[in-house]
User: Fold these one by one.
Assistant:
Number 1:
Amino acid sequence: MPKTPPARTKRDVILEAALDLFSRYGLHGTSVDDIAARADVSKSNLLYYFSSKEALYVALLRDLLVLWMEPLRAFSAEQDPVEAIQAYIRLKLINSRDRPEASRLFCLEMIQGAPLLREELDQMVRRVVEEKSGVIRAWVASGRLAPVDPDHLIFALWATTQHYADFGVQVQSITGKTLADPAFFEATIENVQRIILDGIVKR
Amino acid sequence: MPKTPPARTKRDVILEAALDLFSRYGLHGTSVDDIAARADVSKSNLLYYFSSKEALYVALLRDLLVLWMEPLRAFSAEQDPVEAIQAYIRLKLINSRDRPEASRLFCLEMIQGAPLLREELDQMVRRVVEEKSGVIRAWVASGRLAPVDPDHLIFALWATTQHYADFGVQVQSITGKTLADPAFFEATIENVQRIILDGIVKR
DNA sequence: GTCTATATGCCGATAGAC
DNA sequence: GTCTATCGGCATATAGAC
């Protein structure tokens, strides 16, 4: 029984339009009219698929959270830590380049105290981080990684990579480049990897 | 001629209330009524001091931007780079602890493409970063710092420190602590400094 | 499933008295 | 400078025909 092809349903179109707008203007800065216009459906038709604006917003966040945590799941104690972390930085920067809206939407939600995502935060995210903290601890214990608090390392990895999506405007204002520029993209990967892995102190 | 004492004018009270709310709910998520209530003034009285909600928002951003860039200004080529960067990380984390609202407001504005701050970004921020990039380049050239792109280093410093303000909810959800906890605060400084300066590769 | 029309409430800003 | 009253606009959501 072949799976139904990933048809671009109207629901998906609406979700995508909503992501574009919510991630830039926030829940309150976006009107249902705006989303409907961008998705090329009527407002009442949109409200047929999602019972309210907030329901649409929450549906979006839930869908994205899973994708968002995926790169971290790859960590396992058997891997070489340097390779694993290098690969992780590359993956997250690919996300920042290809799906900056997703990153921005999470950032918006976090800033506002994650009122609609707190439950997932306190459960799923917490669980994954705890598990992966264990992996990092094992790397440190086996002498393959310098002593570092796993939580703070994960925060540093998140922060340095998501920065290029969330603060993309600032990055562009300062460097004149975006991650869409292949040379700049590779230089970014290289520099983030070097800073996190090797630090900047001369030896 | 002694300066007038820093009297807490009504204008200041309004600005502070606005910061609290804007930084959490954004420009559109905050009503003038909300701000007025929190500042304990009437709505029309507020609109006597600020001609519109947007004017208030912009006034706030301009005031904060100056404070926000201050820690970076301290960088100078004569300093020892390790000490300068350690001090910088500490200062920024103090800001994240004591004024998380300011950090969040900037983050919000950046995510939205900085429509009301782009001019300042392209001028003042850009100028300061260019100047301090020169300092970092000098540190590298003189062999006191490992080779690193100055812009990416500045991004990494910003990202890792501001993360504790902007994603404070997530930090608390995962670690159970906030920067208000003195032990956690010192551990954070220590870990961020170590990651950026020494990296995490075992040698 | 999709549409038009509309009910309903909120919010920014102004008018004008004091 | 501060107040009360209110206008006008916009946005969410629903009703009900097709």
Note: The first helix of chain B runs from residue 10 to 29.
Number 2:
Amino acid sequence: MENQTQRIINPYVSVDCVLLGFEEDSLKVLLVRQKDKRNNNMTEFFKLPGSLIYQDEELDEAAQRVLEELTGLKKIKMTQFHAFGSIDRMANSDDNIWLQRFHSIPHHIDRTVTIGYLSLLRINKSYKTLNNEYDACWMDINSIPKLAFDHNSIVEFAVKRVQELVQVMPQKIFELLPRKFTEFQLRTVFEIILNKKIDNRNFHKKFKSMRYVIPLDEKETNVAHRAARYYKFDKNNL
Amino acid sequence: MENQTQRIINPYVSVDCVLLGFEEDSLKVLLVRQKDKRNNNMTEFFKLPGSLIYQDEELDEAAQRVLEELTGLKKIKMTQFHAFGSIDRMANSDDNIWLQRFHSIPHHIDRTVTIGYLSLLRINKSYKTLNNEYDACWMDINSIPKLAFDHNSIVEFAVKRVQELVQVMPQKIFELLPRKFTEFQLRTVFEIILNKKIDNRNFHKKFKSMRYVIPLDEKETNVAHRAARYYKFDKNNL
DNA sequence: GCAAAAGTGTTAGAAGTACACCCATGA
DNA sequence: TCATGGGTGTACTTCTAACACTTTTGC
């Protein structure tokens, strides 16, 4: 990153990454904590991992760079899902002042258009340690605090997009599950995302017909009911 | 528009409008002709209706304004579909020089991120007169010339998006048809957009089951075959 | 009369929906 | 023994796909 000091920031365009994960029967979103010292008061707040782009940088690369800088996560497949450019999205002066300081920009920033990026991913142990090294954490989608800028509505928009996505490309859902998973887990993810109950017998029928779901020999252990079989997702069998 | 001279242009963000219509068995896109005089040579080229945004303007409003300025079309429902921000999308120096002149910007423009807007609409008589008053015209999607900037790939992207859209929301397709249309026309539009033959008897069955398609008493006249009934689309019956 | 599209049914298979009980396990 | 989810089948309905002939009209 030595040569980044020479790169020119584009103060009118940013990227913001919405990473969604699944854990303990609910959807989580990855947020980063930011601290700001002003008038001897330390304030802190949460926001999506995101940042202004450099003028010589592709949008997709910017999303990758920013995510890595703020969370350490590398090579996460994200896709653009919407541009947010409301003229009052920077209206909160605390947000604006923080942004100027963060990027060492000596003037007020009028209005930045941000390109939202989306990814579904499994929350595994390495991701769980994020909050130690990077001050990033997974938060339940139903209990996120007031975020900086318009990030609350960006998250809402992303969740709606995921609902549409899962109807059209149900395979996408496997990105949220651990490498080995039970039929119950898969059904639960569908139920949470589509926000409706799914009949377990009918789901079982569809589940068995998915050729990209491979049964393993392994079963659950230490569960207070009959142990469920584990399955894996085989993307080569789509 | 008197006070627009005071408005501040944001040279980093633009909007481009992809308006798609249907006529003579093919998809058309609305393009505007631009002329540029340089070294006593008049050159002309085509591009999508689009322009840089003002700093105090919502993206959606910018799309509406730009479309009206360049084509006279008002209140067209457009929705954002993708942001295009490749660093070399302004690489063609002719395009860049034209842009600077068009907006009276005294310096080279590095890289503009453009937000693509999409609309499907019927090409009726009023739209056909566009090319007289505004130097805008409908061009067959399969024979568009090299356009300015990356507009050729923006159009391609938009067409792909329409294909997806029609699968999920087939009602959208009625925006392309005239107010009264035949079953044959509707089938043809589906065939063109989905790029496949559709069995007419199976289509007929589905067609009859669409409660939002209302048969009219009127039929075709002067056709060299049995006259087809006209239908109208009733969006209240969705 | 010929070309061109209108208009129309049946059958078979696939997919979706509704619905209820016993089994295995840990606490 | 109780709570929890695992695991399973049938009947009905709906959707999809394949397939061909007669009618109307203008030329």
Note: The interface with chain A takes residues 10, 12-13, 55-59, 80, 82-83, 85-87, 110-111, 113, 115, 164, 167-168 of chain B (CB under 8 Å).
